[in-house]
Amino acid sequence: MIDKTWGSAAEAVADIPDGASLAVGGFGLSGNPIALIEALLAQGTSDLSIVSNNCGVDDWGLGVLLNAQRIRKMTSSYVGENKEFERQFLSGELELELTPQGTLAEKLRAGGAGIAAFYTQTGVGTQVAEGGLPRRYAADGSIAVASPVKDVRTFDVAGTSRPYVLEEAIVTDFALVHALKGDRHGNLVFNKAARNFNPLAAMAGRVCIAQVEELVEPGELDPDSIHLPGIYVHRIVEVGSDIEKRIERRTVSVAQAAAREMPEGA
Predict the structure, then answer these.
(1) pTM of the full predicted structure?
(2) What's the pLDDT score for residue 1?
(3) Looking at the 3D structure of the chain, how many domains does it have?
(4) pLDDT: which is higher, 249 or 177
(5) Are 202 and 250 part of one and the same domain?
């Protein structure tokens, strides 16, 4: 039996060096591998290149690494909830490779599947394909690093000729993900919206580290319910079901809000 369990988050991330590249699961604050992120923060790892849909918020998720200035580059599709992200990017402290969300997902999946690159219509006719998107600013506000021109080819698909842009797959040194359940072989089950970028990030990492709320024995998971097979997972850490899970913005309907404000017994 291959037992992939580790004693703690700190032990599981201990060999992640300065300058490493990481694929990190999560969408907004849903499914963030916060125990692994905080362990990485505590050990002082820096100069990181991170691929993730977004960078958390100012005080949670990947935002804690960003605030400590441990991140050199982000490859993301959304950056709108983090003021420190905006400040570092516009000041030239942080490099950003802004990538369409579906393209980012497929780049990670392709990396895990051994596909070197693929063509997509997304981004054709924009700076995504034509180049020139700012990736890093200089101190004076000029563009220090810009995105390159990408290959565009025309393909006949279903009788229609259309241009497609070439996108390269992403493979990272490590991956950090969060799952609801996992067994000692590394098979994972994700809960609802936490099944976002987590499986894709896991696939893209040469070494995948998973934090799970519940660790079970091999054979306890229904094979038809497994979302990610253990072949992609190398280390697994149990963090418990009471681990903090934050919500970016809690909203309720007008009717729910009125019901909450109604006096008891009315």
Answers:
(1) 0.91
(2) 59
(3) 2
(4) 177
(5) yes
